[in-house]
């Protein structure tokens, strides 16, 4: 059960590697430009969340994202639950 | 013991991260930590015998070799990325282990923390 | 829980310090023991002399406040400071020049370690 932090959009090769690594039980958090992943459906078995402030900053509302949005507090709750991290 | 993986994806000519990943990995041995380094995508060219960031005045990659040997730091690359970047001769001093691209996800999950730099 | 957040890239150019600060503050508010470890160009964010325009946020000032009021710990890679000409007299109070041995200890002793990739 790993937390995977994604901070760049789809053109970043490292983020692609991290996303491909995501598996059932993992939690992926999209921050910064990572929220661009949430404009389309994401094929993954992991749970994916987007930090709402980063979506708002880029002109997207929670309803426009394909994944649930979270606050920074929600991000911390996910950190609490995840023993491993891939950042 | 904690298993920590440092991953670099940017080329050694253009950024500091290959050297910093190794420097950080070597700094881990004071604690009960087993550090490893994985070079992916453009950072894979660091494995090439012909890579010479020092021709730009940058730190040479070779300064890592003696510590890799001393600490027996595990260095990994991805087979497909070696092919993609047309690397013909791999520097032996890394004693690199190449993994299959399809196994990368499982590999990353073997570590407590994976720190992409 | 003991949580460490490592940052690599410079403040003001990128959002990472803002992310780290918001995350750190949320974690502190939930009662966690939080350290931000500044590495490479991110160490510029403890320079007490930075002068952003008035409408912009003052990152060193925010860190200083979190250190003083909420017990945030800020560790700075010392060799990264040397490389960038940042000396101890320039840094915000409460931040702490350290190095890789301290990072190793943080990684080992933290319950959670989160890094924001370069």
SSE topology sketch:
The complex is a heterotrimer of chains A (87), B (117) and C (118).
Chain A: E1 2-6, H1 13-21, E2 27-30, E3 47-51, H2 52-57, E4 69-70, H3 72-81, E5 84-86
Parallel strand pairs in A: 1-2, 1-5, 2-3, 3-4
Chain B: E1 2-8, H1 17-26, E2 33-39, H2 65-71, E3 74-78, H3 79-84, E4 97-99, H4 104-109, E5 113-116
Parallel strand pairs in B: 1-2, 1-5, 2-3, 3-4
Chain C: E1 2-7, H1 16-29, E2 33-38, H2 59-70, E3 73-77, H3 78-83, E4 95-98, H4 100-109, E5 112-116
Parallel strand pairs in C: 1-2, 1-5, 2-3, 3-4
Helix pairs in contact in C: 1-2
Describe this structure in words.
The complex is a heterotrimer of chains A (87), B (117) and C (118). Chain A has one domain: Hypothetical Protein Ychn, Chain: A (3-Layer(aba) Sandwich). Helices cover 29% and strands 22% of the residues of chain A. Chain A has 3 helices and 5 strands. Chain A has helices spanning 13-21, 52-57, 72-81, and strands at residues 2-6, 27-30, 47-51, 69-70, 84-86. Chain A has a 5-stranded parallel sheet with strand order 4-3-2-1-5. The longest helix of chain A has 10 residues, at 72-81. The model of chain A has no long low-confidence stretch (mean pLDDT 98). Chain B has 117 residues and is an alpha/beta fold. Chain B has a single domain (2-116), classed as DsrEFH-like (Hypothetical Protein Ychn, Chain: A). Chain B contains 4 helices and 5 strands, in the order E-H-E-H-E-H-E-H-E. In chain B, strand 3, helix 3 and strand 4 form a beta-alpha-beta unit. Chain B is globular, with a radius of gyration of 13 Å. Chain C has a 5-stranded parallel sheet with strand order 4-3-2-1-5, with helices on both faces. Chain C has one domain (2-116): Hypothetical Protein Ychn, Chain: A. The longest helix of chain C is centred in the N-terminal third of the chain and has 14 residues, at 16-29. The radius of gyration of chain C is 13 Å and the shape is globular. By secondary structure, chain C is α/β, with parallel strands linked by helices. In chain C, helix 1 (16-29) links the parallel strand 1 (2-7) and strand 2 (33-38). Helix content of chain C is 36%, strand content 22%. Chain C has 4 helices and 5 strands; from the N terminus they run βαβαβαβαβ. The A-C interface holds A 3, 5, 7-8, 14, 31-32, 53-54, 71-73, 75-77, 79-80, 82-83, 85, 87 and C 1, 3, 6, 15-16, 19, 22-23, 25-27, 29-30, 32, 112-117.
């Amino acid at each position: 059960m790993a937390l995977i932090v994604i901070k760049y959009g789809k053109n970043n090769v490292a983020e692609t590697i991290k996303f491909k690594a995501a598996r059932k039980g993992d939690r992926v958090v999209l921050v910064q430009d990572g929220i661009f992943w949430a404009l389309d459906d994401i094929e993954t078995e992991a749970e994916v969340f987007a930090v709402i402030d980063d979506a708002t900053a880029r002109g997207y509302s929670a309803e426009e994202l394909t994944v649930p949005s979270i606050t920074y507090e929600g991000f911390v709750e996910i950190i609490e639950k995840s023993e491993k991290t891939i950042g | 013991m904690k298993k920590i993986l440092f991953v670099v994806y940017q080329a050694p000519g253009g950024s500091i991260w290959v050297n910093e990943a190794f420097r950080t990995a070597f700094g881990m041995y004071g604690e009960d930590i087993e550090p490893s380094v994985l070079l992916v995508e453009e950072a894979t060219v660091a494995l090439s015998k012909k890579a010479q960031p020092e021709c730009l005045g940058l730190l040479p990659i070779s300064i890592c070799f003696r510590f890799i040997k001393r600490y027996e730091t595990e260095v990994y690359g991805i087979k497909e990325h070696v092919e993609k970047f047309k690397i013909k001769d791999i520097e032996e001093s890394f004693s690199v282990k190449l993994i299959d691209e399809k196994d990368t996800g499982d590999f990353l999950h073997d570590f407590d923390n994976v720190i992409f730099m | 829980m003991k949580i460490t957040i490592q940052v690599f890239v410079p403040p003001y150019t990128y959002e990472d310090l803002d992310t780290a600060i918001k995350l750190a503050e949320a974690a502190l508010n939930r009662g966690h023991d939080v350290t931000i470890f500044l590495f490479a160009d991110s160490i510029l964010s403890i320079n007490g002399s930075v002068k952003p325009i008035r409408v912009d946020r003052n990152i060193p000032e925010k860190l200083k406040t979190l250190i003083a009021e909420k017990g945030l710990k800020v560790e700075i890679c010392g060799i990264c400071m040397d490389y960038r000409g940042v000396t101890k007299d320039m840094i915000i109070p409460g931040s702490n020049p350290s190095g890789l041995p301290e990072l190793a200890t943080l990684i080992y002793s933290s319950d959670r370690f989160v890094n924001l990739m370069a």
